[in-house]
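To whoever is on call:

I kicked off a structure prediction for a single chain this morning and the downstream step that reads the tokens threw a length-mismatch warning. I double-checked the sequence; it's 184 residues and nothing unusual in it as far as I can see. Pasting both halves so you can look.
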Amino acid sequence: MSFTRRHLPHWIPEDAAVFVTWRLAGSLPPQAETDDKKRSSVPPSILRQDEQLDQARYGPIWLQDSRVASVVVNALLYGEDIRRFYELHAWVVMPNHVHAILQPRGAMSTIMRWLKGRTGRAANRILGRTKTPFWQDESFDHWVRSAEEFQDLIEYVENNPVKAGLVGAKERWRWSSAAVDRRS
């Protein structure tokens, strides 16, 4: 079992699948709060935060630029297929945040440092930004505790663009595992 602490504790048992979310720097107002009365196996804290992120009323939305979204998608797939950092079960790149469900093959801190570092540098180059953070420093992770929760989280991740009103069907969101046929 690994345990790390920055601003949030990160506690992940060996062989657990992990639901992880990271967002653009400045994408939520300070002390953002919403009233969330939903019942779900998705942690309530991420539901509240995700609701605000989906509305994209505050901060940057650089991930809606297809060049930047491609950088993130390619890094996610490269991290699985070439670097073999994890097994990727589901993912979505939204205009201001990313959700992924993965089975880590190493420390989550190493995985996230690599993912955010690689994509942040490339995205900032594309956008002509310098000396400015691309990603929020901290990420949210939650280890999956049951097969039911695993399925619920996959649906949650892949349906996020539908819930946000960006597309009518999850398969229509280009930047998602729901739209990618990886069998070829």
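Update from on-call: the warning came from a stale cache, not from the record. Cleared it. Sanity check on the structure: The chain is about 35% helix and 20% strand.
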